[in-house]
Design a protein that fits this description.
The structure holds two protein chains of two kinds. Chain A is an all-beta fold. Chain A is built from no helices and 13 strands. Chain B is mainly beta. Chain B has no helices and twelve strands. In chain B, strands 2, 5, 6, 10, 11 and 12 form a six-stranded mixed beta sheet that branches. A four-stranded antiparallel beta sheet of chain B has the order 3-9-8-7, with no helix packed on it. In chain B, a hairpin with a 7-residue loop joins strand 10 and strand 11. The relative contact order of chain B is 0.34. The chains are: A mainly beta, B mainly beta. At the A-B interface, strand 4, strand 5, strand 9, strand 11 and strand 12 of A face strand 5, strand 10 and strand 11 of B.
Chain lengths: 120, 116
Protein backbone atom coordinates (compact mmCIF):
# COMPACT_ATOMS: atom_id res chain seq x y z
CA UNK A 1 0.00 0.00 0.00
CA UNK A 2 1.97 3.01 -1.29
CA UNK A 3 -0.57 5.63 -0.12
CA UNK A 4 -0.41 8.88 -2.10
CA UNK A 5 2.44 9.21 -4.57
CA UNK A 6 3.54 12.27 -6.50
CA UNK A 7 5.94 12.74 -9.39
CA UNK A 8 8.25 14.47 -9.96
CA UNK A 9 9.74 15.49 -6.61
CA UNK A 10 11.49 18.50 -8.09
CA UNK A 11 10.93 20.45 -11.30
CA UNK A 12 12.34 23.61 -12.83
CA UNK A 13 10.40 25.27 -15.63
CA UNK A 14 10.85 28.36 -17.73
CA UNK A 15 8.09 30.91 -17.94
CA UNK A 16 5.49 29.84 -20.48
CA UNK A 17 6.26 26.14 -20.39
CA UNK A 18 3.54 23.65 -19.55
CA UNK A 19 3.76 20.51 -17.48
CA UNK A 20 1.71 17.97 -15.58
CA UNK A 21 2.22 17.03 -11.96
CA UNK A 22 1.20 13.46 -11.37
CA UNK A 23 -0.69 12.16 -8.33
CA UNK A 24 -1.89 8.65 -7.65
CA UNK A 25 -3.38 6.84 -4.67
CA UNK A 26 -4.01 3.17 -4.07
CA UNK A 27 -6.42 3.45 -1.16
CA UNK A 28 -9.59 3.62 -3.31
CA UNK A 29 -10.34 7.08 -1.94
CA UNK A 30 -13.09 8.99 -3.66
CA UNK A 31 -11.88 12.47 -2.74
CA UNK A 32 -8.63 13.89 -4.09
CA UNK A 33 -7.27 17.39 -3.99
CA UNK A 34 -4.33 19.59 -4.90
CA UNK A 35 -2.84 22.24 -2.61
CA UNK A 36 0.00 24.68 -2.96
CA UNK A 37 2.18 25.78 -0.08
CA UNK A 38 4.04 29.06 -0.25
CA UNK A 39 6.66 30.19 2.30
CA UNK A 40 5.14 31.22 5.61
CA UNK A 41 1.69 30.22 4.52
CA UNK A 42 -0.57 27.30 5.02
CA UNK A 43 -1.93 25.11 2.29
CA UNK A 44 -4.29 26.64 -0.22
CA UNK A 45 -6.68 24.47 -2.19
CA UNK A 46 -6.26 24.60 -5.97
CA UNK A 47 -8.71 21.99 -7.27
CA UNK A 48 -10.49 18.99 -5.86
CA UNK A 49 -12.47 15.99 -7.02
CA UNK A 50 -15.16 14.02 -5.20
CA UNK A 51 -14.97 11.12 -7.62
CA UNK A 52 -14.02 10.02 -11.12
CA UNK A 53 -15.36 12.46 -13.70
CA UNK A 54 -16.11 15.18 -11.13
CA UNK A 55 -13.82 18.11 -10.42
CA UNK A 56 -14.27 21.56 -8.95
CA UNK A 57 -12.27 24.67 -8.20
CA UNK A 58 -10.75 25.51 -4.89
CA UNK A 59 -9.41 28.78 -3.53
CA UNK A 60 -6.65 29.43 -6.12
CA UNK A 61 -7.53 27.64 -9.39
CA UNK A 62 -6.27 30.14 -11.96
CA UNK A 63 -3.52 28.80 -14.21
CA UNK A 64 -4.22 25.16 -13.36
CA UNK A 65 -6.33 22.41 -14.90
CA UNK A 66 -7.31 19.03 -13.54
CA UNK A 67 -9.14 15.95 -14.71
CA UNK A 68 -10.18 12.74 -12.96
CA UNK A 69 -10.64 9.89 -15.39
CA UNK A 70 -9.96 7.18 -12.81
CA UNK A 71 -10.35 6.86 -9.04
CA UNK A 72 -6.60 6.42 -8.65
CA UNK A 73 -5.18 9.35 -10.61
CA UNK A 74 -5.58 13.11 -10.32
CA UNK A 75 -3.06 15.01 -12.47
CA UNK A 76 -2.55 18.76 -12.17
CA UNK A 77 -1.68 20.65 -15.34
CA UNK A 78 0.08 23.98 -15.50
CA UNK A 79 -0.96 25.51 -18.80
CA UNK A 80 1.64 28.28 -19.10
CA UNK A 81 3.95 28.43 -16.10
CA UNK A 82 4.55 31.75 -14.37
CA UNK A 83 7.04 32.68 -11.62
CA UNK A 84 4.06 33.15 -9.26
CA UNK A 85 3.47 29.42 -9.51
CA UNK A 86 6.78 28.66 -7.83
CA UNK A 87 5.64 26.66 -4.84
CA UNK A 88 5.47 23.26 -3.22
CA UNK A 89 2.49 21.27 -4.45
CA UNK A 90 0.79 18.62 -2.37
CA UNK A 91 -1.76 16.10 -3.51
CA UNK A 92 -4.08 14.54 -0.95
CA UNK A 93 -6.84 11.97 -0.79
CA UNK A 94 -9.49 10.87 1.65
CA UNK A 95 -12.37 8.47 1.86
CA UNK A 96 -15.85 9.91 1.65
CA UNK A 97 -19.35 8.60 2.10
CA UNK A 98 -22.65 9.61 0.63
CA UNK A 99 -25.42 11.11 2.76
CA UNK A 100 -28.59 12.72 1.59
CA UNK A 101 -28.02 14.83 -1.49
CA UNK A 102 -24.27 14.88 -1.69
CA UNK A 103 -20.88 13.63 -0.57
CA UNK A 104 -19.57 14.11 2.92
CA UNK A 105 -16.20 13.42 4.39
CA UNK A 106 -15.77 10.78 6.99
CA UNK A 107 -12.08 10.33 7.15
CA UNK A 108 -8.68 11.93 7.43
CA UNK A 109 -6.91 13.49 4.47
CA UNK A 110 -3.58 11.89 3.60
CA UNK A 111 -0.91 13.79 1.74
CA UNK A 112 1.67 12.87 -0.85
CA UNK A 113 5.34 13.83 -0.37
CA UNK A 114 5.03 17.02 -2.42
CA UNK A 115 6.52 18.41 -5.62
CA UNK A 116 8.82 21.40 -5.38
CA UNK A 117 8.32 23.52 -8.50
CA UNK A 118 10.45 26.47 -9.53
CA UNK A 119 9.46 28.67 -12.46
CA UNK A 120 12.22 30.91 -13.79
CA UNK B 1 -16.64 30.90 4.90
CA UNK B 2 -14.38 29.05 7.24
CA UNK B 3 -11.16 30.36 8.67
CA UNK B 4 -8.35 28.97 10.79
CA UNK B 5 -6.03 31.28 12.70
CA UNK B 6 -2.71 30.25 14.20
CA UNK B 7 -1.60 33.49 15.81
CA UNK B 8 1.83 32.21 16.81
CA UNK B 9 4.07 32.37 13.76
CA UNK B 10 7.18 31.07 15.51
CA UNK B 11 7.87 29.59 18.92
CA UNK B 12 11.25 28.72 20.35
CA UNK B 13 11.69 26.63 23.49
CA UNK B 14 14.45 24.75 25.21
CA UNK B 15 14.28 20.99 25.33
CA UNK B 16 12.05 19.57 28.08
CA UNK B 17 9.90 22.68 28.25
CA UNK B 18 6.16 22.34 27.68
CA UNK B 19 4.74 24.28 24.75
CA UNK B 20 1.20 25.03 23.60
CA UNK B 21 0.29 25.84 20.01
CA UNK B 22 -2.90 27.83 19.61
CA UNK B 23 -5.58 27.33 16.98
CA UNK B 24 -8.77 29.34 16.65
CA UNK B 25 -11.32 28.63 13.96
CA UNK B 26 -14.43 30.11 12.42
CA UNK B 27 -17.18 28.19 10.71
CA UNK B 28 -20.91 28.46 10.21
CA UNK B 29 -21.27 24.70 10.17
CA UNK B 30 -22.46 22.87 13.24
CA UNK B 31 -20.64 19.69 12.22
CA UNK B 32 -17.00 19.72 11.24
CA UNK B 33 -13.62 18.10 11.78
CA UNK B 34 -10.50 19.67 13.21
CA UNK B 35 -7.01 18.39 12.48
CA UNK B 36 -3.42 18.91 13.42
CA UNK B 37 -0.60 18.08 11.00
CA UNK B 38 3.15 18.17 11.52
CA UNK B 39 5.55 19.18 8.77
CA UNK B 40 9.16 18.30 9.74
CA UNK B 41 12.13 19.83 7.92
CA UNK B 42 11.97 16.98 5.39
CA UNK B 43 8.73 18.55 4.09
CA UNK B 44 6.12 15.83 4.28
CA UNK B 45 2.81 16.39 6.07
CA UNK B 46 2.18 14.01 8.93
CA UNK B 47 -1.31 13.57 10.34
CA UNK B 48 -1.44 13.90 14.14
CA UNK B 49 -5.07 14.00 15.20
CA UNK B 50 -8.66 14.43 14.04
CA UNK B 51 -11.45 15.63 16.27
CA UNK B 52 -15.08 15.97 15.26
CA UNK B 53 -17.27 18.78 16.52
CA UNK B 54 -19.47 16.45 18.56
CA UNK B 55 -16.63 15.29 20.73
CA UNK B 56 -15.19 17.85 23.12
CA UNK B 57 -13.20 15.40 25.16
CA UNK B 58 -9.55 16.24 25.44
CA UNK B 59 -7.13 13.70 24.09
CA UNK B 60 -3.68 12.65 25.17
CA UNK B 61 -1.25 10.63 23.13
CA UNK B 62 2.09 10.23 24.79
CA UNK B 63 3.65 13.69 25.12
CA UNK B 64 0.95 15.24 22.92
CA UNK B 65 -2.39 16.51 24.17
CA UNK B 66 -5.20 18.45 22.56
CA UNK B 67 -7.73 20.76 24.16
CA UNK B 68 -10.91 21.32 22.13
CA UNK B 69 -13.23 24.03 23.40
CA UNK B 70 -16.25 24.65 21.22
CA UNK B 71 -17.33 27.64 23.34
CA UNK B 72 -14.19 29.55 22.36
CA UNK B 73 -13.74 27.89 18.93
CA UNK B 74 -10.27 26.73 19.88
CA UNK B 75 -8.34 23.52 19.36
CA UNK B 76 -4.99 23.93 21.09
CA UNK B 77 -2.11 21.48 20.96
CA UNK B 78 0.33 20.96 23.85
CA UNK B 79 3.64 19.15 23.70
CA UNK B 80 4.91 18.12 27.11
CA UNK B 81 8.64 17.80 27.74
CA UNK B 82 9.52 18.93 24.23
CA UNK B 83 12.33 17.27 22.31
CA UNK B 84 14.54 18.45 19.46
CA UNK B 85 12.68 16.05 17.13
CA UNK B 86 9.51 18.05 17.75
CA UNK B 87 10.99 20.92 15.75
CA UNK B 88 8.66 21.36 12.80
CA UNK B 89 5.88 23.46 11.36
CA UNK B 90 2.52 22.54 12.82
CA UNK B 91 -0.72 23.17 10.95
CA UNK B 92 -4.24 23.28 12.28
CA UNK B 93 -7.02 22.59 9.77
CA UNK B 94 -10.81 22.63 9.63
CA UNK B 95 -12.92 20.42 7.37
CA UNK B 96 -16.61 20.74 6.77
CA UNK B 97 -18.59 17.55 6.93
CA UNK B 98 -21.90 18.06 5.20
CA UNK B 99 -21.25 20.98 2.87
CA UNK B 100 -18.81 21.96 0.16
CA UNK B 101 -17.68 18.37 -0.26
CA UNK B 102 -15.67 18.53 2.91
CA UNK B 103 -13.09 21.05 1.76
CA UNK B 104 -10.34 21.76 4.25
CA UNK B 105 -9.01 25.12 5.36
CA UNK B 106 -5.55 25.34 6.86
CA UNK B 107 -4.00 27.86 9.19
CA UNK B 108 -0.70 29.47 8.22
CA UNK B 109 1.22 27.22 10.56
CA UNK B 110 3.37 27.66 13.66
CA UNK B 111 7.08 27.00 13.38
CA UNK B 112 8.31 25.32 16.54
CA UNK B 113 12.02 25.24 17.27
CA UNK B 114 13.19 23.12 20.17
CA UNK B 115 16.75 23.89 21.20
CA UNK B 116 18.92 21.35 23.01
Amino acid sequence: NAGVTQTPKFQVLKTGQSMTLQCAQDMNHEYMSWYRQDPGMGLRLIHYSVGAGITDQGEVPNGYNVSRSTTEDFPLRLLSAAPSQTSVYFCASKKTGLAGGGPYTTDTQYFGPGTRLTVL
Amino acid sequence: AQKVTQAQTEISVVEKEDVTLDCVYETRDTTYYLFWYKQPPSGELVFLIRRNSFDEQNEISGRYSWNFQKSTSSFNFTITASQVVDSAVYFCALSEIDTNAGKSTFGDGTTLTVKP
